[in-house]
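Incident review: delayed structure delivery

Summary: a single-chain prediction request sat in the queue longer than the usual turnaround. Root cause was a stuck worker, restarted by the on-call engineer. No data loss occurred. The affected request and its eventual output are reproduced below so the record is complete for anyone auditing the incident later.

Affected input:
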Amino acid sequence: MLLKRVILILKNYKMKRPDYRLWDGKKMRYNAIVGNGQALYITDGTGEYKWTNLAEIIAMEKTGFEDTEFKFIWESDILEDKEGNIAVVVWIKEWGMFGVLLDYEFEKYKDGDIKELDESMFWTFPLENRLYKKIGNIYENPHLIENRMEKII
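Output delivered after worker restart:
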């Protein structure tokens, strides 16, 4: 009896699943399902589903936030604020949240050095709705970050 009740509750409970996009080294693929080391996505043109191993691709989650033009913001997107600061959206697993890191902070984080990031500096740039304009992502538009890094160094 209890098991039937739990199953009924779970069927009626509509929990929003995370949305993912995938980078396969050539093309960004949206509306993917990720789990158990695998990813499922719809192929172009045919509408067929394809399974792939997560070790072969890069999966990025939708943050739930939008940019100034109401476009969804995803992990690894490159954003620009009103002052022209360039930042990257990352999932900071050590803090359990999405964050916005300035280009030079992102380079430190990418190199695996979370300890060098100053927590108060991180909180200066929170990820918020319609505060930033999305200008690309680190896979399709790496030059947006690389060019900035050359100017800083």
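Verification: The beta strands are 20-23, 28-35, 38-42, 49-53, 58-66, 72-74, 77-80, 86-92, 97-102, 133-137.
Action items: add queue-age alerting; document worker restart procedure.
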